[in-house]
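Quick illustration, no need to memorize.
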Amino acid sequence: SDLIRQTFKSMLADDKEWPTTVRVDIQAYYDRDPACDRFIMPVLYFKGFHAIQTHRLAHWLWNQGRKDFALYLQSRSSSVFQTDINPAARIGKGIFIDHATGLVVGETAVIEDDVSILHGVTLGGTGKAGGDRHPKIRYGVLIGAGAKILGNIEIGHCSKIAAGSVVLSPVPHNKTVAGVPARVVGETGCDQPSRQMDQLLPSQTMDQVVSFDI
């Protein structure tokens, strides 16, 4: 614990942006989670927030060349928070991970600012490629529970991935995709789905589902 404390102090001294980043992360939880009615709650109770902050320290260590320590923190985070975020993954600020259990983020994944991710999400590779092989999630994206996004593909800014979808190809900006494999089912209907947290499909698609004659 003393080593982690000293390492954290070193990161704070080196990364002047971290205090701003953590404040924006806390604000994301307060704004987007109806269960969060106090700013202190993510800090005390929400393991998604804890996992992200652990990753930020692990990522700093990774960039400092202290990869064994970074991988140790990844392993502990996986055990304690049930999330597996590779320390090399690049993650922006204003990130909201709701419930968090079962989240997997691969080594070359990128998550830009103001992204919301629910539990059971995988940002993984296809298993057939090396090198840069994981998804690139642009700003303002909402990823529903249980969605799997595989391969070095771009998820365009302010797009929405429906719960349970398997995404194998790039998603255009401001589009909603759903299904296995996922396909475009409409517009997102707002500037930043990650802030609105509306997980329903577009109304036109819902009307088609409701009127489907079984």
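The CA atoms of residues 189 and 202 lie 7 Å apart.
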